[in-house]
Design brief:
Helices cover 39% and strands 19% of the residues. With 461 residues, it is of the alpha+beta class. The strands form three sheets. Strands 4, 6, 7, 8, 10 and 11 form a six-stranded mixed beta sheet that branches. The chain has a four-stranded antiparallel beta sheet with strand order 1-5-9-14, with no helix packed on it. Strand 12 and strand 13 (433-434) form a beta hairpin. Helix 5 crosses helix 8 (188-210). The chain is elongated and about 85 Å long. It starts with 57 loop residues before the first helix and ends with a strand.
């Protein structure tokens, strides 16, 4: 059998091609494991071209994800702390709540001390190495939890947007703390927030322990807050004797926050925690029919006025000749609180003068404290109001606002008087219930039509 060999072909053992060098002008075959030799260098071992990079573990992938979304993680932990307190917050006089908040403050103080002891570039002890990377998350969680608790207490003790503005300001400081310009300053923002939390803690604790509110209680809280910052400085001075650094990162933000809080209190921005108006409404009549039971009478509004479903009583007050609105409210103070007085003020939005006070208001003595439903009281302005926008405000004797309620007086010119409905305020239930619901559990309840008209002001324990 004859084998024909092309003229240009060569036997394999006679080839002049250098192993490992691709044929000039031709592409590499797909998947070829070929080393490329460079002039003056030896031929590379194919095993050296295999990647030796370690396959990322789950922990590595989590850390990479956290690094990518660092700022979002900070916000998440802050609001996780806030949400935790919204769902679990107990009354302000609850002993467990006070102990929990104190523990949070102690943990925050410890984290701030360790952060100053081991700043960026200084490796912490091996005992802390595994958890050290979570320190900022812990700081944000505990700060968020404390700030949310105190903000909720402030919110209950006031009726404006001040607590919401306060919370927004605190969150803005936390966000600013993550910006490069603020990061260069060190833990300035965190120390300021810690200083605020310490004073707000004492401002909520001392009234419960001493059974009273007043400017000197808040001033004492600020003094204790200043003492805490001074103690923090003394501890840090042992490890970081550079007084200029401690002055800039601890003393200025810490004591500055105390001065800010004190100024806000005397300007009336901070409400008188722990006093809180739990419910308030405007009614046509309020009658005490028995011990702990009050009938609250209001008008039934047309179905198309859907916004009135969110009103407390007659905030759209349809007024006939000689009628006056009756302001009913429930105010809470912790157990053991001494008797105190609050002032009820009426304001009219005058077309030319703006909001104008109607007299000096009425002083209401509050003596029953600690009950779940709070102490009840109702008052009239003492004169037939003019049609227009009105506001009734409850404040402490020294002028700190506790609650405000806006309502509108509308002259009722219809010949037919609108139908009336009756709600019932009972002792341990904060919000009034319907008369029909009350009648089911109290079949012998008196007829609302037979109740006497209220006086201008009357105590309602």
């Amino acid at each position: 059998m004859l084998t024909v060999t092309p003229p240009d072909s060569k036997p394999q053992d006679a080839s002049t091609e250098v192993p490992g060098v691709p044929v000039e002008g031709g592409p590499l075959p797909p998947g070829a494991n070929v080393a490329v030799a460079t002039p003056g260098a030896g031929v590379a071992d194919p095993d050296d071209l295999v990647s030796t990079e370690k396959t990322p573990t789950l922990v590595d992938r989590v850390q990479a994800f956290r690094a990518k979304y660092e700022k979002q993680e900070m916000a998440l932990f802050f609001f996780a702390g806030f949400l935790y307190d919204v769902l679990t917050l107990s009354p302000i006089d609850d002993a467990l709540t006070e102990v929990q908040n104190f523990a949070y403050l102690a943990i925050l103080a410890g984290l701030l001390v360790l952060e100053q002891r081991y700043p960026e570039g200084v490796e912490p002890p091996k005992l802390l190495m595994k958890v050290w990377r979570f320190r900022e998350d812990a700081l944000h969680f505990f700060l968020g939890s404390l700030l949310s608790a105190f903000t909720l207490f402030l919110f209950k003790s006031s009726s404006g947007f001040t607590p919401l503005v306060f919370l927004a300001g605190m969150f803005s400081l936390l966000v600013a703390n993550e910006l490069p310009r603020f990061r260069q300053l060190g833990p300035v923002i965190r120390v300021a927030l810690f200083s605020l939390c310490v004073t707000l803690y004492f401002a909520s604790l001392l009234p419960v322990l001493l059974g009273r509110v007043g400017w000197w209680i808040f001033t004492l809280s600020v003094a204790l807050g200043c003492g805490s910052i001074y103690g923090l400085l003394r501890v840090l001075n042992r490890w970081r004797p550079d007084e200029s650094v401690l002055l800039r990162t601890v003393a200025v933000p810490g004591f500055g926050a105390q001065a800010l809080l004190l100024a806000c209190y005397f300007l009336g921005v901070i409400p008188p925690v722990p006093l809180a108006v739990q419910y308030s409404g405007i009614y046509h009549d309020v009658n005490r029919v028995s011990s702990g039971v009050y009938y609250l009478k209001s008008k039934v509004h047309p179905w198309w006025k859907v916004w009135t479903a969110f009103h407390h009583g007659d905030q759209d007050f349809l007024m006939r000749d000689g009628e006056q609105p009756v302001y009913f409210f429930r105010i809470f103070a912790p157990k053991g609180f001494e008797s105190y007085r609050v002032r009820v003020r009426w304001y009219y939005d005058h077309p030319q003068k703006g909001w104008t006070a109607l007299g000096k208001g009425h002083m209401a003595p509050v003596s029953a404290n600690g009950s779940e439903g709070g102490f009840r009281y109702f008052a009239k302005p003492g004169t037939t109001p003019k049609p227009g926008d009105w506001r009734v405000v409850v404040e402490t004797e020294d002028g700190h606002e506790i609650n405000r309620l806006n309502f509108t007086v509308i002259e009722d010119k219809d010949a037919e008087e609108p139908p009336e409905k009756v709600d019932v305020s009972v002792y341990n239930i904060v919000k009034p219930i319907s008369f029909e619901e009350f009648k089911k559990s109290n079949p012998s309840a008196p007829d609302p039509q037979g109740a006497a008209a209220p006086a201008a002001t009357a105590p309602a324990p």
